[in-house]
Amino acid sequence: MTVTKNLGGGSLIGVPIYYGNGENFGTLCGMDLRPHHFTEDHIDLFKAMANLLGNVLDLESANNKIQTLSVPFVPISDEVAILPIIGDVDEERTDRIMEITLSESVNHNLEYLILDLSGLISIDSNSTVNLLKIGNSLSLLGVKSILTGIRPELALRAIRENSDFENLTVKANLKQALSSIGYSIVKS
């Protein structure tokens, strides 16, 4: 190859790295300034490493999709969106919720964001405080936040942690939250 000739001889081995769908990511290469004869074992090793890298890339892609689904931002009008928090919440997920909430609120130019916690299964103490701080962060962006679906154990934990509710409106459920900002459900 030209690259090895320019280095004054040597050896090069290259094996393509593919995503699971067959799309090429790139090439795994090994190069040495000295000439080397590659055996079938060397080639098999490079193929195995390329397959492993392809699998890691697929796992990373799947993880990114899961992370996006773990924060389902749902616009319901030009100025209102709902963020249902479902499942378990840890510090990493709280950070992701904060990041997506702030960026999507700005992108959609929201006036209100309703955070619905009725699907929340469990949350650690640090995440409780950080989740409630989202209201403060949103208020700095001019977005009014409404919290719904707070379960008794989360309410007790928030009080024990001396959480600040100053920038949060709290309603029992989604229907009350929507009603408080002038929305109503009309049967057709």
Automatic annotation (TrEMBL):
What is the species listed in this Swiss-Prot or TrEMBL entry?
A: Pseudalkalibacillus berkeleyi
Range of residues in the leader sequence: none
Ranges for domain STAS: 70-181
Q: Which domain of life is it from?
A: Bacteria
UniProt-listed InterPro entries? Bact_StressResp_Reg, GAF, GAF-like_dom_sf, STAS_dom, STAS_dom_sf
Name assigned to this protein: STAS domain-containing protein
